[in-house]
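Notes from hallway chat w/ T.B., transcribed later so I don't forget. T.B. wanted the structure written out for a chain they're using in a teaching module, and asked if we could keep both sequence and structure tokens in one place. Agreed to drop them here.
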Amino acid sequence: MKKVSQVMKTNDYSIFSILKGNRSINKAHLKRLKESIEEESLIVPIIVNESHEIIDGQNRFNAWKDLNLPVYFIVVPGYGLSQVQRLNSNVRNWSMKDYADCYETIGKKDYAVYKKFKSEYGLGDYESIALLQNQDNGSGKNFERFRNGKFKVCNYKKACKNAEKVVALSEFYDGYKRRSFVFSILHLINHKNFDFKQLLQKLKYQQSKLVDCTNKEQYLLLLQSIYNYKSTNKVNLIYN
């Protein structure tokens, strides 16, 4: 048996700091944690790096601090933000907001743009990412890059114009925010033979035909049917 790390104890809260980019404190979780600790305080050390930045256990640290109890901790040199994300993902998955907050905090401006865009148009995380990257295939690689801090906005002005078109369809379809629908509209917008104004015109008389679909492909077939209604020159909108 080999001793690899030692649990230490202190009441000096000032030596610890929150790692820049880590998630904000979950107030509801902190409240529950304090109530549990007051019933029985179990020794579950927090993990810090050599600078005493908290890698894992910032809610526990704040609970102990608020209750004026000693902090138990283990120092693991070299740990940083990537280890925070990995440790937390094994307990409670980081949301896209967590990642965006994290990377914005450490100065990645594309994530601040993403947050502004998402707030302005009221669309979901994956839909906003797709629009900002002008990708209609919902590729898992795009979302993985977002989580890894490699997200880049392709063309913000174009993304805004496309988002405005998606939102304009709310007049005809309550499900305009659905992921598959947004992807299908982005596909159409990027089609060389597609005219968005024509779609709006056709929807005025066929709004009832626009119903929920299971996936992007079904939406495209439905939208193509609506778009080509009573047209002499039928356009194939499925393939570019």
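Follow-up for T.B.: The first helix runs from residue 27 to 39. Might be a good example for the class.
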